[in-house]
Design a protein that fits this description.
Largest sheet: 2 strands, parallel
Structural class: mainly alpha
Distance between the termini: 30 Å
Helix content: 40-55%
Radius of gyration: 13 Å
Strand order of the largest sheet: 1-2
Oligomer: single chain
Number of helices: 3
């Protein structure tokens, strides 16, 4: 996915790991991954063909990422 910036910032904020950042790929076959508020606004990133996901997809992925990060040992320097 090409992930919108709000998702990366949310991941940094919610992650229990002190050094968290998001790596994403552009021009992949999955298109854009906008957060729900951007889906409501519309725009290029939400058009069929550039986004083939349900509106809550980023929320579901965020929940899974935070769960995985929480399960990791985060007391490394």
């Amino acid at each position: 996915f090409e992930v919108l910036v709000e998702i990366g910032l949310e991941l940094k904020e919610k992650s229990p790991a002190p050094r968290t950042f998001l790596i994403e790929l552009a021009n992949g076959s999955y298109g854009y991954l906008p957060p729900p508020n951007q889906v409501e606004l519309g725009g290029y990133e939400t058009w069929p063909g550039t986004n083939n996901l349900e509106p809550q997809a980023s929320v579901q992925l965020m929940d899974a990422l935070i769960e995985m990060a929480t399960s990791l040992k985060t007391d490394l320097p």
